[in-house]
TrEMBL record:
Region Disordered, annotated ranges: 26-47
Signal found in the keyword field: yes
The keyword Disulfide bond belongs to this UniProt entry's keyword annotation: no
Protein's recorded name: Outer membrane protein beta-barrel domain-containing protein
Domain Outer membrane protein beta-barrel stretches: 44-191
Entry superkingdom: Bacteria
GO cellular component entries: host outer membrane
InterPro entries linked to this entry: Beta-barrel_OMP (IPR027385), Enterovir_OMP (IPR000758), OMP/PagP_B-barrel (IPR011250)
Signal peptide range: 1-19
Record-linked SUPFAM superfamilies: OMPA-like
Keywords recorded for this protein, A-Z: Signal
Gene source species: Salegentibacter mishustinae
Length: 191
């Protein structure tokens, strides 16, 4: 768990350090440069942001033939970094609890705006089960996450995400190997 949290913090810090402002246009007067700088700063602040999100979570254990799911909640931190006008990179670290399972989700999603307030999300996600003795050897997994997002206002948003587990869990003592899939829907706020 420490490795995932440290990696997530390092990843978010790296993005924040390399986020660069656009240069001021040449041939403008002092007042024009101030106006352009203020506009660029406002635009940059809209595109490089941090926030929180929370909502409903369903964790499903896929046994191949059948799937068992438990409901719960999730909450966590997100960041958004502009890649282009329509594409953003959205790293997120979320805590999820469903029944007795405590899970940390760390994802790096590409966010593409199809239209002004509607986006699609896709990218890798890592999952880590916290404090589960029966999944200790298989506590870490890799998923592929896809979803949609809707910006209700400039700050408030809703999103829906499904993560398909790629990691086959279980060991030689388990009767059936399994995969863990998650479904999340919730609201968030960007600062």
């Amino acid at each position: 768990m420490k490795k995932i949290l440290l990696s997530s913090i390092l990843f978010l810090t790296t993005f924040a350090i390399f986020a660069q402002k656009q240069p001021v246009e040449e041939g403008t007067t002092g007042n024009q440069q101030e106006e352009i700088s203020e506009e660029q700063e406002e635009e940059e602040n809209r595109k490089n942001r941090f926030g929180v999100k929370a909502g409903y979570s369903s964790v499903a254990v896929d046994l191949g033939v059948i799937s068992l799911s438990v409901d719960g909640f999730y909450a966590g931190l997100i960041a958004e970094f502009s890649a282009t006008d329509k594409i953003l990179i959205q790293p997120e670290v979320l805590y999820s609890r469903a029944a007795e399972a405590n899970i940390i989700h760390g994802a790096v999603l590409a966010k593409y705006y199809v239209v002004e307030n509607l986006s699609i999300l896709a990218g890798p996600q890592a999952t880590y089960f916290i404090g589960e003795e029966d999944v200790e050897d298989n506590s870490f997994g890799v998923d592929v996450a896809v979803g949609v997002g809707f910006d209700i206002t400039d700050d408030l948003f809703a999103d829906l995400k499904y993560a398909y587990g790629l990691t086959e869990r279980g060991d030689e003592n388990d009767f059936i190997p399994y995969k863990v899939n998650t479904f999340q829907i919730g609201l968030g706020y960007k600062f």
